[in-house]
Amino acid sequence: MKNEKTASRRDKNLADIRERATKIAERIVLEQGGGALNARGLAKELGISVGSLYNAFGDLEGVVRAVNARCADRLALALRTGLAAADDEARARVIAIGEAYFDFAYSEPRRWYMLFERDSDLQLDVKTAELQEGLLEMLIRAGDGDPGNEQHRQFFLLLWASVHGLVSLACRPSIVMIKPEVARHYMHDLIKAAFRNFPETAPS
């Protein structure tokens, strides 16, 4: 009985650390950027040791994954909202998803950066993989495609990659930047051209 109570108390303590740490880490990311997030600083704000933080998350990347899960939920909501308001036509639905993706990146660049641009050397964790697969399936179905059809998957992956590249050049500092209003216009043209130019892989 004593061991059960001890384990329960420990689990509750770790859950409390995870909840508080995720919120504080998210605030740090939004205010200062992902590069400002470090274990020592986060533990200090929480009033705990780095060891206690690692007991709750495993390592700093565990904290990052927790923050990214919250970012992913906000992105998914934004895309679903955009899709729900779109005209009932495949190309219009895909454009609506593209616009919602663009608007999310432009209005919440640090959340978007954490999800897609933070560190390409990190292994793809399960939560991020599920997010990306979910986004791809949403896009395929919106375009009247079949998620089980490999040609459709490749077509929409290419389309997503193209839109993502355009968003990257419009929404983050780089040597070559595209004005946001110009990027939105090109995004419409890009999606329309994709549906015209790849009839052998695009759904009818």
Automatic annotation (TrEMBL):
Q: Which Pfam families match?
A: TetR_C_33
Outline the extent of the HTH tetR-type domain: 15-75
What name does the UniProt record give this protein?
Answer: TetR-type transcriptional regulator-like protein
Q: InterPro entries recorded for this chain?
A: Homeodomain-like_sf (IPR009057), HTH-type_TetR-like_transc_reg (IPR050109), HTH_TetR (IPR001647), MT1864/Rv1816-like_C (IPR025996), Tet_transcr_reg_TetR-rel_C_sf (IPR036271)
What PANTHER family does its record include?
HTH-TYPE TRANSCRIPTIONAL REGULATOR BETI, HTH-TYPE TRANSCRIPTIONAL REGULATOR RUTR
Identify the Gene3D superfamilies for this entry.
Tetracycline Repressor, domain 2
What top-level branch of life does the organism fall under?
A: Bacteria
| UniProt GO MF annotations | DNA-binding transcription factor activity; transcription cis-regulatory region binding
